[in-house]
Each structure stands twice: as C-alpha cells, then as structure tokens.
Amino acid sequence: MTARDQLRGGPRQATTGARIALIKGDGIGVDVSEAAMLVAEAACRQAGAPALDFDEIRAGAGYFRETGRDIEPGGEVRAGNADAIFLGAIGLPEIRHPDGTEISPHLRLRDRYGLYAGIRPVKAYPNAPQRLADPRAAKIDLVILRESTEGLFYSAAAHGRAQVIGDEEVRETLRITRATTERLHRFAFRLAGKRLAQGKRARLTCVDKANVFTSMAFFRKIFGEVAAEHPDAEIGYNYVDAQALDLVRRPWDFDILVMENMFGDILSDLAGGLVGGMGMAACGEIGDETGLFQPAHGSAPDIMGRDEANPLAAILSAALMLDYLAEKTGIAAYAAAGGAIDMAVEAGFAARQLRPMEFGGDMGTRAVTDAVLTRIETPEQSLAAG
User: Fold this and answer.
1) Each residue's pLDDT tens digit, 111-125
2) Distances in Å between the alpha carbon of 351 and those of 265, 292, 365, 386?
3) Quick one: what percent of the chain has pLDDT higher than 70?
4) Tens digits of per-residue pLDDT, 76-109?
5) Rounded to whole angstroms, how far apart are CA atoms 343 and 163?
6) How far apart are the C-alpha atoms of 9 and 37, rounded to whole Å?
7) Beta strands 117-123 and 284-286: pairing type?
8) Using CA atoms, how far apart are residues 146 and 249, in angstroms rounded to an integer?
9) Which DSSP state fits 69?
10) Which tops the pLDDT comparison, 62 or 379?
11) CATH (one of 3.40.1380.10, 3.40.50.720, 3.40.50.300, 3.40.718.10) for 1-118+276-386
C-alpha cells in the first residue's frame, strides 16, 4: 500500500524509532496531521532514518463534547514521555467553556513541559502569493521566536490564574522570569549559530515594550546580558508597535525576532500573512526535555474532510520536528529527512507544482500532499529545481 493510499484511509504498519505523540485534534487538524505524518514517514524512508512510532492521543473540543474532558486520561503523561508531540489543530467555535474561552489542552502541555521556545519560521516561496509589491519581499526568510510559557499567556484561561472580581473586573498577570527568559535568549543565539552555518543572515532583534512596562524592560535587560556572552553576534532592539510597522514596511531586513508570548502570537500571524497565509505557518514549541510541533492555523471545521485544507503548514512543522529529533536523538538522518521536506516544498513551488486552494489554486489536501511525496521519493527533481 502506497503512502497515497494510506492518506485515503488505509492502515498504518507498526513502526519502531522515535516515538511521536500524535494529537490530531479537531477540524482540519485531522486532515493535515495525517498528511504531515505521511510525508514525514516518506522522508525518513528516503533518508534511511529509523521509522517513526506513533502514539495517538485523543484531545480537543470534539473529545470534550463527547466526554467532558479535553484530553484522554493519561494523555498528558504519554505526550511528555514521547520523543516529540505533533498536534493538528484544537478548537471548535461552538464548543467552549461556560466563560466563553476555548478548549485548550495544548496550552497546558506548553506549561507542564516548559515549552518556552516557540519557533515560527516566515519564508517567502517562489510562485506563492506575496502580499507586498516590493520585489524584496521575495527574499523574506525570518524566524519569530516567541516565549511560549509565560508573558501574558501565563494567566490564560486554561491555567485558571486570572483574578475574577465578581462581574465587574478581571485581572490578568504578565509574568517574566529570569530563568525562562535567559533560556529563551540563549536558544535565540544558538538558533542564530545554526542559521549562520546554513549560510543565512542571523541578526537578532529583541522586540519588547521596554519604554512602558517594567516587565519588558526586564526582558530587554536579560537579552543584553546574554548578548554580552556573544560579542560577535549582530543584535538590535525594536518596540513591538514599531516592529509591527516594520514587518509591513521592510520585513526582508529581519532575521530572528525574539519576543514575549502575546507579542509573538500577534506578530507571527501578521508575518504569516506576508508570505501567503496561515496555511504556510509552521510552528515548533521546544523545551529542555521535549518539543511540540503544529501548524499555527486553526481547525477550520467548515472545510474538514472536504479535501480543501492546505497541509503545507503541517508538513513544514513535521520538518521542524525531524530536525529537532536529530538533535535530541543524535541521529543525523532525521535532519536529512527534515531537509528533504523543506527542499521538496521549495522545489514544488518553484516548478509551480504546488497550487493550494488556499491561494486560489486547483490542488486540495491530497493533491498537495501527493506532490510533496513525489518530490521526496524522486529527490533528483528537487535537486534539479534547487
């Protein structure tokens, strides 16, 4: 049975290798996570990497509707015991808690496992929509590094930390700690080193609101302290409102943007819009022990099962996961597999063989997935296009 047959509902074979906690979730999360794992499996076979072993965990709004729980019993522990977590999408608009907030078990996973480093790559692909007329927009290749466990999300509803004063007032806490912020900034400088090794620019910009908030001044202070340990690194600073303007005015000038949780949540969506849309928005959330990988888009239940969702954000998130697994396990073939996915997507766009419906094209979830699989299975095509 081919990978394409599996995408259409065939059984998976038992595998061994790195264990992936697979949370398909809600809506198109099911469609795109299945597509992404098929591509990841194909890339591992092509690279000679050990086959992935999947532990599927039920979670999300649909599961909450059925059971009153947002994740199956023992699911959080199983997720943490895996080598990595892959999540499709969580949430359905009609299913919420009594206070109106969404079902969000993934926020607890971030908090429980300290997934502080939220990586959001923003890359322009040839022949994909470009929202800016300036030809330099074709060279956008930056990373938003979002702290993902504290900041304003420290008091997100999933954690129950908000102070509710009757029906008159609600107070949320924006938390910045030295321990987490130091880890984030050190991660940023390691990421800069990886980009330099790949021949890319790696200027780091600390994005904050240090002119107004004491917490943000603290965030900036710690960035400066860590930067002093890297005297050869190129660094800069920008206030978040100015950064929003600059992402529209001159995004090609930025390489790595480091910021607080809420700022990263907002600016990463803005940046995603510059390079096509959320269907291209990959995401990795990495801690010291494990990592969670997911497309940054929502569950879009209106198109679930209709073969219309763009799976590329999920597929590119799978590439991030494989690169992470290479570092975690020491198995370089996982990194080769992740690189093969990245190359297949780049080459597919360059050859106009990736035309997602999201961009007005004629290719649904299965056709896009099949095109990426073909590129991976015939790597000489990707090399020729590169």
Assistant:
1) 899 999 999 999 999
2) 32, 31, 18, 10
3) 93
4) 999 999 999 999 999 999 998 888 888 889 989 9
5) 48
6) 13
7) antiparallel
8) 21
9) -
10) 62
11) 3.40.718.10
